[in-house]
Amino acid sequence: MITRHIQGKIHHRIVEHGDTVYIGGLVATDKTKDMKGQAQEIFGKLEELLAQAGTSKEKLLQVMIYSAAFDQKDAFNEAWCEWLAPETFPVRAYIGGAELSPGTLVEVVTVASK
């Protein structure tokens, strides 16, 4: 069974299929923040959405990170390591060269288990 939550104009924010939760691309609202600040804001939003879907950051399976500022990967990783315990790290990819909206440094797409 497929369950969709938070319908937007062109997509749903969360889609559940069985015990798997897919969360579409999240970006920071405050574009004045640096990379670490944008990452922290995204992680906060992600925790809220995961909770709404009945799961948590400890159950993340995969994270795809699209960056418009690859040279700031260390700042993203700093926020990442403060947010997640190493034993719960999911698989991930950090992809540079993304063309994101003005001021957006990073976008995060996730898959989690229930």
TrEMBL record:
Transmembrane segments: none
InterPro entries: RutC-like_sf, YjgF/YER057c/UK114, YoaB-like
Pfam family of the protein (one): Ribonuc_L-PSP
Domain of life: Bacteria
PANTHER family: PTHR47328, RUTC FAMILY PROTEIN YOAB (PTHR47328:SF1)
Name listed for the protein in its UniProt record: Enamine deaminase RidA, house cleaning of reactive enamine intermediates, YjgF/YER057c/UK114 family
